[in-house]
């Protein structure tokens, strides 16, 4: 990690392949939101709703849609997708330097197939038969189990645990505390207690996947647990054995997917969505926060469960009535019938 | 970890103490589900529902109930409990070899009471006064705190943290990222903020317990947190201080049990069940996914909370009505009274 | 960690700055609840409800409110806040000794600004530019990233991971498995998949904060994620990027706060509360277990969501009716209108 990186407006425009308006030599020290950016900072306007903040901002340059830029007199980078350009700029300003290639003397590397360009941190353990591809970083204290394969240009952060027989493709980021390949939850009842079902499958993770801190991806019972390409998972994602997740699906923090469920591609799950086991979710399914998905979803769309939040006093009353909801329904049906009878009587 | 293990049908029959039908010398390379088993694989039919898959399967041998086997012409192992036999077979095919006994040179073992047959992985730390029983494996990077005792034939996976004063019996499996004996959440309010209550109890874990990755079992405030024999917990199980869990209880992923609650034996909790503190759950209680248990359950049975999943548009309308459920109830009562009055008037 | 600590009643009275009644030389070996305390143990009566337990207890001394002590003939410590005095006494009896200052030879300490009084455990990694204040303990296997600062008298337990650029103030306790400063979940959609938004902010944690095992506090996108002074969080707390938590707020296990939400001071969240992103919670807001906070809360009070628990058979019926709740509401409205029309007709 070095000091802060700075760029001139013209340098940024070149790096991001964007046109700019204004003084190209303007020095930019970092990125900040419009509302809090001081002089020297780059900002961005991703949503026209916040246009008022643009005029009020002290940012020294702003990433703007060309249509907005027409009427803007300050320094700006012109982008048809300002939010995407901000994302690209964030990579340039990131002060985190990639560790130098090499194996730290305190690391225990039994594996032989580790590329020379790999950076293996202090106190790492790389077990026999593991393979680590070119340009990959293994953070301090991480453990890579026997015969597991990690592709090129991955970043496995500190204290990650990867069990044996796990396969991770290229450009994957795995955050600290994640456990990949722990045993799926499989037991057969027997007269002498639970008989463990050894989990003989592995885990396969695609390209450009990111997995948030303290997540768990369990190994399959017989076949592999599979995470497709371009899947992004926030912290505490729980993927049980034999789950399959399609390309590009995104899961916010603490989503939990039970065993053998198949999830399509391009889905978005808000925080703490739960999914029961052995079901199928179609492509392009979007789930609101804390929903429990209790059955297969066969068509794209947005799905939800739960109740809204309210003051506890009112909630108690409503929750008590929920316990009588079926009864209430029947009473309404009975009222309807009574009224019909009355109408008849009167008719 | 060695290469793949293979068995002949006759060898498997002997190892599992089962009869077989067919060619005993058939070589079996692994286990696979009926639908995807290739030649060379063992499969099993645990549920008569899937009998069609049996005829379609390319498996080279199948574990079958004798009643099914009567009409089956292929190779099979005869078992009255095919699923249990599959579980037992899975242990035979598991390629994960137990690490060799011995202390890795990079491990820091201050404790003196470590059996010669124990395997202590790279970069482990075993603090003063800890005891590790015969045949136990401590994975790389795991930490065992002062005066903690681990029994015989346990498997403590990589990067597990066991605090001081924890007691773990025999044949226990603890997956990576688990923390046993962290402080329970105890604080007394004071005029200068929260006064920490030091957690002076420990944790006691019974025989044949398995705890999934990244779980937490907190130490007791004054007495111990207790997990009985044959308890199985999936990933992210959260057991708060002074909880007691009875023998043989099973918890799927992400169950959370608040402080001082006592759970019976033989219970099954589906995924992400929550339990409030200071209550009692009877034996043989079964809880559906994501239920929040808000009060003691004194009789065996199945319990639930929550709402079903639906399309978000409909859900929003229903959830909005939930906020008026008590009002709705009262309006129905009022309608009923009105109708009775009318009846009287008309009577 | 040494053996058990013991105190005479008089010594305890002096240490806790309390008056006592009875025999000052009474030896006390530990603390226990009234119901299970044996001779030799100190207990406490924090709630007058449990007064019956006081008479039945075998405790050798009890912390009592002076009004209760008047009619108590045994040994006691007099406190106007017995629960707070118990908390203070628990610190005295804690057998966990602070590790001795010094850097374990197996630790990898690249940083230069580590106070001589710091205790750095086996296999720790302290990266370049990190600062560790006087009296702080870093447990075995913990990793402190580049340029992160940890204040004085903190206790960072084993296998904690602190990323680069994190700032932790004084007297902070962080339990095992916690990850501080992992990347917030920020991605911009692009035609070629998700473009990662590098998380350029840090994390700032105030004084006297405690964070439970396996929690995650993500770094900010552009500005810092902030946890105020005296905040206490139980295990599995998930704090997303750019969240701000006010002083003295308490969160029980598994609370999840989504990005950019601002939470006031003096709030208490029961277990597994969820909070959506980009909202504001006022000071002194109290939330019941498992509530999902879906919108800003602008005034103090207690808030809830969800449904009560019931037997699964009844629950299924009620949950099915929930799916028709809006329809039911409309039918009730229609009944009301019909009755009004009838009344008119009859009028």
UniProtKB/TrEMBL annotation, chains A, B, C:
Keyword RNA-binding: no
Listed EC numbers: 2.3.1.191
Family named by the database record: Belongs to the transferase hexapeptide repeat family. LpxD subfamily.
Domain UDP-3-O-[3-hydroxymyristoyl] glucosamine N-acyltransferase non-repeat region: 28-92
InterPro entries named in the record: Hexapep, LpxD, Trimer_LpxA-like_sf, UDP_GlcNAc_AcTrfase_non-rep
Pathway membership: Bacterial outer membrane biogenesis; LPS lipid A biosynthesis
Assigned keywords, A-Z: Acyltransferase, Lipid A biosynthesis, Lipid biosynthesis, Lipid metabolism, Repeat, Transferase
Keyword Cytoplasm annotated: no
Active site: 241
Gene designation: lpxD
Organism expressing this protein natively: Zhongshania guokunii
Name used for this protein in its record: UDP-3-O-acylglucosamine N-acyltransferase
